[in-house]
Amino acid sequence: MPSRDMDQFDRRILQRLQDDARTTTDDIAEAVGLSATAVQRRIKRLRAQGAIVSEVAVIDPAAVGLGLRVIVGVELIQGSRADLIDPFKRRMAAQPQVQQCYYVAGEFDFLLIVLARDVADYERLSRQLFFEDANIKRFTTTFVLDAAKVGLQVPID
């Protein structure tokens, strides 16, 4: 949904939902100055048009035993061949501990954000994900010491 198709009501609704997806339509309606029915229709349209991708609970990884966050740069041997890139993307998407996977331009072909219980767990996971893939030229691991900011909200003008 191109941003030009959204009016200020849509933007204010999206902001309220980003702040708390459990906010009731009545509360949103009061905050943005529309009826609850109008808000429901707009939310339904925003979902259908793909502006709202998902509504999830954000879990603290440490609370479920995944206290180690790792940034991994992956360079492929054949980083420009779609028949080799696409399987890598699918494998990363299927791995729950890979939180984010970006196909990038620059020193690496991919940047990943990975969660693990500890260094031993990450070492096991890295063997599974990277050592067994013949198209991986190299990968580098950067252990996150502190997350100064982890953002999921999209700035809405």
Key attributes of the depicted protein:
157 residues; four-stranded antiparallel beta sheet
Task: Report on the architecture of this protein.
This protein has 157 residues and is an alpha+beta fold. Helix content is 38%, strand content 19%. It has helices at residues 8-19, 25-32, 36-48, 82-94, 119-131; strands spanning 68-76, 98-103, 110-116, 136-143. The protein has a four-stranded antiparallel β-sheet with strand order 2-3-1-4, with helices on one face. Strand 2 and strand 3 (110-116) form a beta hairpin. The longest helix is centred in the first third of the chain and has 13 residues, at 36-48.
Strand line-up of the largest beta sheet: 2-3-1-4
Uncertain regions spanning at least 5 consecutive residues? none
Helix content: 25-40%
Number of beta-strand segments: 4
Number of helices: 5
Summarize the structure.
By secondary structure, this protein is α+β, with helices and mostly antiparallel strands. The protein has helices at residues 8-19, 25-32, 36-48, 82-94, 119-131, and strands at residues 68-76, 98-103, 110-116, 136-143. The protein has a 4-stranded antiparallel beta sheet with strand order 2-3-1-4, with helices on one face.
